What does this fold into?
Amino acid sequence: MNATMSYAQAIHDGLVEEMRRDPKVFVLGEDVAKFGGAFKITKGLLEEFGPERVRDTPLSENAIIGAAMGAAIMGYRPVAEIMYMDFLHECSDQLVNHLPKMHFMTGGKLTAPAVIRTQYSLGRNTGAQHSQFFPSVYMNTPGIMVVTPSTPADAKGLLKTAIRGNNPVLYIECAALYGNKGEVPEGEYTIPFGRADVRRSGNDVTVVAVSRMVGEALSAADALASKGISLEVLDLRTLVPLDTEAIISSVKKTARLVTAEDSCITCGVGAEVVARITERAMDYLESIERVACPDIPAPFSPPLQKAYMPGREKIVEAVKRMMTSMPL
Amino acid sequence: MDNKIPKAMLLSLYETMVRQRMLEEEVVDLYKKGLIPGLAHPYIGQEAVAAGVCAALEKDDLIVSNHRGHGHSIAKGVPERAILSELMGKDAGMCLGLGGSMHSTDLNCGVVFSTAIVGGGIPLSVGVALALEMDKKTNCVVCFFGDGATNTGAFHEGLNLAAIWKLPVVFVCENNRYAVSVPVTKSTSAPIAQRSQAYGIPGRLVDGMNVLDVYTAALEAVSRAKKADGPSLLECETYRYRGHGVYDSGLDYRPQEEINEWMKRDPIQSFARKLTTEKTTTIDELEAIRSKVKSTLEEAVRFAQERPYPSEDILTRHVWA
It folds into this structure.
């Protein structure tokens, strides 16, 4: 049996279910208590779990991560909310220099199973400091899992895996997806990390997509199907661990790779995907293109934002370039 | 207060400081011989702070330390052999050789972690205190940091959060007058202890060269934390005799006369003088402590030198839990 619910509701439900299951799970962050979070993900939690387990914090991102980490090494399973992904740069010391390295630096004596939830807002006209999506920074920081759900079902199942695991997790939501509805299994389920999901099978081009771009890739696949071009859409779901084998096996079939993400293009997720495929499957590869934001800060004005953002059209164009440059 | 402190405690304070001093002198020597790679930041001169503070703690109380942390580990009861093995990068180190001089963890002794990022331990200690509070434990955590850390954002964020949540943490600032080379007078706008007022918590200026003063002040702050009355800030005025790290002479930015003046107030010698003139103990008894510490240290040096380096498979073993 499935229920239809929004991406936001699925995250909320996952959190509530984990808090009911395990008294060591608690929530902290800016405006998470009475206000229910800037995006209402934690709405109702204060009423059900009380102020001890649902904690408003000051605007102190370093202290939020430090508090989560300190409690985590003492046996708690904190879920910290950082309101915008951009604000992760406020807490880079705790998030990059400390949290991912605690287990390693101590020879395995400490574990820090803290989940850091955040969201990126590209597409919502929020300007250069409230739009950024830069997960590859954390792919380049060993010791923290990086999760980027694209559907309500994945959002819930991956959050549960994040909370139950023993490693730190950066769980990156996409604000543009909060209202999207989808089928979510009823009852208990989790989704393992490191397994990409083939969201659509196809033969001509592999689109490796992250977060919001999964939906855009599926939409591009619909548009191209009528022209006789068949896309295979791979949703990475987690960037650390990265399901390299799934990408390789798809590219071996299609020989063409498009990566699609809301990051700026240089050193983005696509850069790493392309590097891995080039190392491991170069002989199978006929063409590659990365679809991403240009190396420009996010603009505000709606027409400029539209021009700036990657989306269905840019994927379609990339695929068409590939298909015309190659003899069919 | 002094009169009420049992002799065993007084001798234990003395022994802790001697252990700290002798270990660090050995560390400097081993570094010069090329047996300790990387960085090491000697605690020499500051012994009274960790000795006095940790004497006010119970075994289950916790500490969060920093890059100048060997003295903190000693004061919390970590054996010299585990510290030296870590400093030499050997497999028997506190962190299996993965951490180095600036990282210490020994949960049996209550040493949670020491960070190599100045100020970075403060938010972490707040989280540890939060867990103690949520667990309804009566223990507390002490966070040690230097004067330099009080100018980081982490200091502000951490003290404020600990204060609003009334957490059982004692913030101990070891004001050794210099953040590497910059004197506190040129970096810090107001006396550090006074900064506590901005967070609505008690702040106290303590003579960090006097182990009994530190002990007494720490008892009060620890008791406050354990009674759920919230955090405190202790500013312990002290001095590092050596440079910032083993590679730094410490003479490029400090006049020798200033160093000499502080050394006249040496925490170990002055405490020994006090104990003998007040006839609490004898020179012979103190000498016996010194020679016991020395032989433990010599054995620890041999132990660490003989231990193997960690096997390479450990590289991947502790990235993920």
